[in-house]
Amino acid sequence: MLKIGIVGATGYTGEELVKILSRHSGVEVLSLSAIIDKPTKISEVFPSLAGKCDIICKELDIEEVCGLSDLVFLALPHTVSMQFAPKFLKEKKRVIDLSADYRLPAKVYKEWYAKEHMDKAGLDSAVYGLPEVYRKDIKKADLIANPGCYPTSIILAGLPLVKEGVVELDDIIADSKSGVTGAGRKAAIPLIFSEVNENLKAYKIDTHQHKPEISQELSKAAGKGLDVVFTPHLIPMNRGILSTLYFKLKKKMTAKDIAKLYKRQYKNEPFVKISKGLPQIKDVVNTNYCEIGVSVSGNRAIIVSCIDNLLKGAAGQAVQNMNIMCGFKEAEGLIS
């Protein structure tokens, strides 16, 4: 059995990791840690885990985590993970980081996260954990930079078109709507019920910290630089992301033509579905699937994708990466 530690276990992503791993046949969760008032059973923090996982969650003790774990998930805020990942790697533990700390080059990271990167060696060795693109590299990795939720929904939706070279690269727009759990489990006035309920708002228009990650990965797929105009929105739902992407086609194509590109690109992917119509958030919530639908209007291709931000956008994808790294069936623990 693979021994697992989770650092940051009391957040929404930590909760989902415990849920998934508690039903995984090849692992055993032995260490849970977080900033917490006193050692507490995780099933008391999240009562839905009662009988599934009753391990005590306590303050982080790196030596203890290393003694109990083969692989460590870091479900920590951005700019925090890079303080701890090197310590686990030094002790020969494999690490899957769910923050943004290893997704971008140091210079870009500093620009968008306003902090100097503390682990340049880790940046050089980290593998971007999007299985549909980097599966071969993930198999050999010791450090995984688990993608963000917005980027996962947008990159998977845009990759086939930019890779095939059938769209203009200077005119790509991504419009995304996310449930409130995407902001994490924290007390903040913009996230309280009376602020979010019966409301819909755009925020950080083309300045969201996930923008460079999106442009970086789609540029790699295109083989040349591009810049995606990205507008995120907060919707009054717990979970789920719907992203709509707009592309200008270089030649006349029908929705059927475009769907063929997507089906070819993702034909062997267990967690990407090409919809016959347009997907909805309810189609994917509580699953690790990304569902994609295609449409054409004049010379515009309009692509819609849906994911659960806590699963394919975070914990589910992290476990998918673990399965690839450690030789498990890729869907183990992810299809109940």
CA-based shape: globular
Q: Taking Cα atoms only, what radius of gyration do you get, to the nearest Å?
A: 19 Å
SS-based structural class? alpha/beta
The biggest beta sheet is recorded as: 8 strands, mixed
Binned, the helix content reads 25-40%
What percent strand?
A: 15-25%
Global mean pLDDT: 96
- The overall number of domains is 2
Strand order of the largest sheet: 3-4-2-1-5-6-8-7
Indicate the CATH class of the largest domain: Alpha Beta
What is the strand tally?
15
Q: At the fourth CATH level, what is the homologous superfamily of the largest domain?
A: NAD(P)-binding Rossmann-like Domain
- CATH topology label of the largest domain: Rossmann fold
Order of helices and strands: EHEEHEHEHEHHEHEHEHEHEEHEEEH
Could you characterize the architecture of this molecule?
With 336 residues, the protein is α/β, with parallel strands linked by helices. The chain folds into 2 domains: 2-146 and 314-326, Rossmann fold; 150-307, Dihydrodipicolinate Reductase, domain 2, CATH 3.30.360.10. It has 12 helices and 15 strands. It has helices at residues 12-22, 42-45, 62-68, 81-90, 106-113, 120-125, 131-140, 149-164, 193-196, 211-222, 255-265, 315-326, and strands at residues 2-7, 27-33, 40-41, 56-58, 71-74, 94-97, 127-128, 143-145, 167-178, 201-202, 229-234, 241-249, 272-274, 290-297, 300-307. The strands form 2 sheets. An 8-stranded mixed sheet has the order 3-4-2-1-5-6-8-7, sandwiched between helices. It has a 7-stranded mixed sheet with strand order 10-11-9-12-15-14-13. It is globular. The mean pLDDT is 96.
